[in-house]
UniProtKB/TrEMBL annotation, chain A:
It is a multi-pass membrane protein. The chain crosses the membrane at residues 20-48, 69-87, 190-217. PANTHER family: ABC TRANSPORTER PERMEASE PROTEIN, MEMBRANE COMPONENT OF AMINO ACID ABC TRANSPORTER. It comes from the Bacteria. Residues 21-209 form the ABC transmembrane type-1 domain. PROSITE patterns: ABC_TM1 (PS50928). CDD domains: TM_PBP2. SUPFAM superfamilies: MetI-like (SSF161098). Belongs to the binding-protein-dependent transport system permease family. HisMQ subfamily. This is Amino acid ABC transporter permease. Keywords: Cell membrane, Membrane, Transmembrane, Transmembrane helix, Transport. It comes from Paeniroseomonas aquatica. It is found in: Cell inner membrane; Cell membrane. InterPro entries: AA_ABC_transptr_permease_3TM, ArtM/GltK/GlnP/TcyL/YhdX-like, MetI-like, MetI-like_sf.
UniProtKB/TrEMBL annotation, chain B:
Residues 4-238 form the ABC transporter domain. SUPFAM superfamilies: P-loop containing nucleoside triphosphate hydrolases. It is a peripheral membrane protein. This is Amino acid ABC transporter ATP-binding protein. Its main location: membrane. Pfam families: ABC_tran.
TrEMBL record, chain C:
It comes from the Bacteria. Its main location: membrane. It is a multi-pass membrane protein. Belongs to the binding-protein-dependent transport system permease family. HisMQ subfamily. The chain crosses the membrane at residues 20-41, 53-74, 86-105, 186-205. This is Amino acid ABC transporter permease. It is found in: Cell inner membrane; Cell membrane. Residues 17-205 form the ABC transmembrane type-1 domain.
Length: 232, 243, 218
């Protein structure tokens, strides 16, 4: 076969790829921070609401979890302007990421909250705490410790999904890859390179999230036990 | 020819030597009880005999098969050796009858009708003929253990190994399992059992083996072992165990 | 000329769902076979085989589906395959599915108690017989709910293959939007169709899981 791998032209454009990777990191970082916060807040709100008032949160979670991220992105970027909300591609991407991850985080943290034993809540209430205080001080930390591995996986998945933002020409890693491809015509080499960058990002992220979990829920504390139980 | 021949067997778990040179011979029809403290290596010895544990030195032979490393050789040996575990280990997704018929059918290639006949006979032998269609989860611990015995019997083994089979059972359920084993012994089954039931060993076993610190410390006719122990270790063990 | 978003446009989008479904089924079948091999390899007694399977799972789970798609697309054409885009799309979706199904099924296999392996080994069963008659029947019960749950992810991720020109739901939405300029209606419709496909599957997965848990404690 006549094909020969030529990575040199791709590496010559590494500055472009690096810029893309930086935007990927920014989108992921900000998106994960706010998406996770949204999820934790909504899960607490849901937990504190009487069952009859839980449906708005549930509906949001179900709608987001049962439609593709790409379609959510298209609705926000192309659809919102038609009702007067105009966003740049980056703003639309970030909104979609936060909304998407928010729904998954809500669901994951909800499961964590439900795994906290009733007796813990009763103990808090019997100390005359309000229900909010019980959630804030007694329930939420063990709940997140328990689901930290699941949350971490979801964060990594979200980072990988930011590649879809190239569909609305956000210049993140995948989009810059397409640019380099059309300049160099080395499609396969470009995508191998970029795939390896994503793989590296995912590995580093997994490591960092594991460290973060170990710092927030240290071994030897009750929270550390919950975290390691869950990952087994 | 003996059914089981164990010669100079050594077994280590990491740095810990659990069996330090074991020699044991089991003749056809013999019932041998192995007694000793936990950690004396008695369960390990049993598990070595059907290859669930690998030995580092020595020879094990069952019904003429040498225990070698090949997967095929191991399976051939296991066809002749039944083992019953402390925790029953019935297959929860199969009914009682199916539990018993499975290995004869897929391992021995026995036809369905013959496998069923064997399973029914084995169930009758353990006194559970009417539970053929039951699910394991719906049986008591004692009944599950008797099904486990029947499951081994249906392979028509030359020797049966029993590894503390009543230890996980409530006291009121151990009786039915011991009775089942006693009946097997009466019917001439060659048996090797690790047990804490001293009265049972004394009454049913032809020979009793006392293991201590990875060695066979003392062995002899059960009556003699229990009535006139020779070593101080056995005397102390029996004294502590019977008082 | 700007067209209205009317019945014929709606029907065009609805009909494109067959490609979404076809891709899902193909990915599930191909990816299922590959994922099964990965799961068995992951539970192998040979350390190098285990490591290889673990590496495969870790790799697939660390790569965007979009990249798997491009690599399949350009890789297959480099290898001399002159194929319709739907072929590369199926291959990439199958590779993606194998990484996740492999991990789900490994978990199910390893959740079967080790005593079941020992008891079946003691009955002289071969490794294959142990899998066939003892371990897999039990693992299957545990694997069904998360597998059904994964199908939802699969359906949603097929939307990504729209970029190489397979006219499935997302691509059909794009085409109609370009002709009608009614993005809210068009993509809302697309989202609704996805939801109608995915939601019942999600509910089924949850019900199966509930049943399994009830069966365990009861």
């Amino acid at each position: 076969m006549g094909f020969q791998f030529q990575f040199a032209p791709v590496f010559a454009r590494s500055d472009v790829l690096l810029e893309g990777a930086l935007l990927t990191l920014q989108l992921s970082g900000i998106g994960i921070l706010f998406g996770a916060l949204l999820g934790i807040l909504l899960a607490m709100l849901r937990g504190l609401s009487p069952p009859a008032l839980r449906w708005p949160v549930d509906a949001y979670v179900e709608l987001v979890r049962n439609t593709p991220f790409l379609v959510q992105l298209l609705i926000i970027f192309f659809g919102l302007p038609s009702i007067g909300v105009r966003l740049t591609a980056e703003q639309a991407a970030l909104s979609a990421i936060i909304l998407n991850l928010g729904a998954y985080s809500t669901e994951i943290v909800r499961a964590g909250i439900e795994s906290v034993h009733r007796s813990q809540i009763e103990a808090g209430l019997s100390l005359a705490m309000t229900r909010w205080q019980v959630f804030r001080y007694v329930v939420i930390a063990p709940a997140i410790a328990r689901v930290w591995p699941a949350l971490s996986s979801q964060f990594v998945l979200m980072m990988l999904s930011t590649s879809v933002c190239s569909f609305i020409s956000v210049q993140e890693l995948s989009a810059t890859a397409a640019n380099v491809e059309s300049d160099t015509f080395r499609s396969f080499e470009v995508y191998i390179t970029v795939t390896l960058i994503y793989l590296g990002l995912a590995l580093v992220m997994r490591g960092l999230l594991a460290v973060l979990g170990a710092v927030m829920f240290p071994k030897g504390s009750g929270l550390g036990r919950l975290r390691t139980q869950a990952s087994r | 020819m003996p059914v089981v021949r164990v010669e100079g067997v050594h077994k280590r778990f990491g740095a810990v030597e659990v069996l330090k040179g074991i020699d044991l011979t089991v003749e056809g029809g013999q019932v041998i009880a192995i007694i000793g403290r936990s950690g004396s290596g008695k369960s390990t010895l049993l598990r070595c005999i059907n290859g669930l544990e690998q030995i580092q030195a020595g020879r094990i032979e069952v019904a003429g098969h040498g225990l070698d490393a090949s997967a095929k050789g191991l399976r051939d040996l296991r066809k002749d050796v039944g083992i019953v575990f402390q925790s029953y280990n019935l297959f929860p997704h199969l009914k009682v009858g199916e539990n018993i018929m499975l290995a004869p059918r897929v391992v021995l290639g026995v036809g369905k009708a013959e496998a069923r006949r064997r399973a029914e006979a084995a169930l009758a032998e353990v006194g559970l003929a009417e539970r053929f269609e039951a699910w394991p989860d719906n049986l008591s611990g004692g009944q599950q253990q008797r099904v486990a015995i029947a499951r081994s019997l249906a392979m028509q083994p030359k020797v049966m190994l029993f590894d503390e089979v009543t230890s996980a059972l409530d006291p009121e359920l151990t009786g039915e399992v011991l009775q089942t084993m006693e009946r097997l012994a009466l019917h001439g089954m060659t048996m090797l059992l690790v047990t804490h039931e001293m009265a049972f060993a004394r009454r049913v076993a032809t020979t009793t083996v006392f293991m201590h610190q990875g060695r066979i410390w003392e062995q002899g006719p059960s009556e003699r072992i229990f009535s006139a122990p020779e070593t101080p270790e056995l005397r102390q063990f029996l004294g502590g165990g019977l008082k | 000329m700007i067209r209205e978003f009317s019945q014929s446009e709606f029907l065009f989008i609805l009909a494109s769902a067959r490609w979404t479904l076809l891709l899902t089924v193909l990915a599930l079948l191909l990816g299922g076979v590959l994922g099964f091999v990965v799961a068995i390899a992951r539970a192998s007694r040979l350390a190098p085989v285990r490591a290889l399977a673990a590496g495969w799972i870790g790799m697939i789970q660390g790569i965007p589906v979009l990249m798997l798609l491009f690599l399949s697309y350009y890789g297959l054409s480099l290898a001399g395959f002159d194929m319709p885009p739907v072929f590369a799309a199926s291959v990439s979706m199958a590779i993606y599915a194998s990484g996740y199904l492999g991990e789900i099924w490994r978990g199910a296999i390893q959740s079967v108690a080790w005593q079941q392996w020992e008891a079946s080994a003691a009955l002289a069963m071969s490794r294959a017989q142990q899998y066939r008659y003892v371990v897999l029947p039990q693992a299957m019960r545990i694997a069904v709910p998360p597998t059904v749950g994964f199908i939802v992810q699969l359906v949603k991720n097929t939307s990504i293959v729209s970029i190489i020109g397979v006219v499935e739901l997302a691509r059909a939405g794009n085409l109609i939007n370009n002709a009608t300029f009614q993005p809210f209606k068009v993509f809302g419709t697309v989202a609704l169709i996805y939801f109608m496909i995915c939601w019942p599957i999600s509910l089924l997965a949850r019900r199966l899981e509930g049943k399994l848990n009830a069966g365990r404690t009861g």
